Amino acid sequence: MFRLALALSAALFATGAAAEQRTIVDAAGRSVPIADTSRIVAIGGAVTEILYALRLEDRIVAVDLTSDFPERAQQKASVGYMRTLSPEGVLSVAPSLVLAIEGSGPKEAIDVLEKASVPFVLVPEAHDAAGVVAKIRFVADVVGEHEKGKALANAVAADLATVAASRPPQDQRRKAIFVLSMAGGGPMVAGEGTSAADVFALAGVQNALTGVTGYKAANEEASMQAMPDAVVMMSRGEHVANADEVFASAAFAGTPAAHDKRLVVLPGEYLLGLGPRTAQAARDLFVGIYPDRPPPAVPERPWSTDTE
Question: Model-level pTM?
Fold first, then answer.
């Protein structure tokens, strides 16, 4: 099955839409020749959003499970979750190009895809405003849409600059803690080096959990010492919880967040994807943390609303 998929993909690549061949250096430092972008597998919600924002949805043949925006993206064939990819599943849709966000996996699957006859490009992840803009430009350049990418990147950069101009001074910034899940009674929280921490920084919010890297189960003492002014969660599936449940937890019961019942709930990929909607997500996070301050004047954009 796998060999058949490889052979089919190789044939399609050889006879695909004619285009000027170019070489892209991806996030892994690999030089990848690109000649046909007519059948794209998009892995990573931000990658998919960028392609839709560039009005290239007709080229997308499959997406991963994190690609839930715009909603119509979910009508595309699915290759599964970005961290548990199967090479056979990715190649079974006969792509001419695979675009995968950095951090996709597992490593064994990525190793196979990098050696397949279909061009596989690892898209660099973003960690700040410059990284978001660079990610947009990178995807646009891979698919041969430099001018569209430039226009999109410039608009997103302007919106992110608007958010930055609204951030309070460092000594006036409130602290928040991102809770990935309350499952099992104990919170799983985001420390440094996470996309949650990156978005907090963009919105001018301090990550209350310092000295911890990645996502960790928080004990009561650590959470109490963090003393967050707000708790931030995702609004979907097993990750969601209501304010009564969150603030009844011993980890947060005595915090300023519990006193004010300040729970900010936003869609996961919207908040953490670091894609074209990041300025809007940072604005909404800002509003949730600083309801007493004027919000950043970030407009809704065509790519930030789920419309045709």
Answer: 0.90
Collapsing DSSP to helix, strand or coil, 176 comes out as strand
How many whole angstroms separate alpha carbon 143 and alpha carbon 141? 5
Token pair of 159, please?
């919106």
* pLDDT tier at 14, thresholds 50, 70, 90: very low
Report the interhelical angle of 146-166 vs 278-289 (nearest 10°): 10
Residues 157 and 58: their CA atoms lie apart, in Å, by 26
CA distance 188 to 15: 49
CA atoms within 13 A on the CB side of 147: 0
Tell me how far apart the alpha carbons of residues 67 and 78 are, in angstroms, rounded to a whole number: 9
Q: How many CB atoms lie within 10 A of CB 94?
A: 17
The structure tokens listed for 71 are 């909603």
Spatial contact of 201 and 179, defined as CB atoms under 8 Å apart: no
Give which of 175, 135, 162 is closest to 45, Cα–Cα: 135
SS3 195: helix
Mean pLDDT value across residues 60-80: 97
Q: What six digits make up the tokens of 92?
A: 């079974």
Q: Look at residue 308 and tell me whether its pLDDT is greater than 80.
A: no
Euclidean distance between CA atoms 109 and 131, whole angstroms? 26
The pLDDT score that the predictor gives to residue 143 is 98
